[in-house]
Design brief:
alpha+beta; two-stranded antiparallel ribbon; five-stranded antiparallel beta sheet; 7 strands
Length: 104
């Protein structure tokens, strides 16, 4: 089982770059090498949120949710290559959600 502290140490030491792989269904996918393996993980770009202002409710919709840019993005720039250590929060989130996949 992977340990996030070991991943952090490896990424800071190796300075490995995470490479953009693809976009699918509201997620950016990156691949990065650490601990002798290559892993892929998603970064959510959009999230479904409940509409809280009653004036924004849509009568024709069964649920009152909408898609918005993920607040988790903050001001992080997402280029074709990003330092793997800058994406640790999303790697950790992917581990928690069982979305960190070994691809090589």
């Amino acid at each position: 089982m992977l340990d996030i502290n070991e991943i952090k140490k490896d990424l800071y030491k190796s300075k490995n770059m995470a490479k953009f792989s693809h976009y699918q269904s509201g997620d950016l996918f990156y691949e990065v090498e650490f601990l002798e393996g290559k892993y892929q993980f998603p970064i959510a770009v959009v999230e479904e949120v409940e509409i809280t202002d009653p004036s924004d409710y849509r009568e024709d919709e069964e649920d009152n949710t909408e898609l918005r840019l993920s607040e988790d993005l903050g001001i992080t720039p997402f280029g074709a290559e990003v330092k793997g250590s800058e994406l640790i929060r999303w790697i950790q989130k992917a581990m928690k959600n069982e979305q960190l996949i070994k691809v090589g």
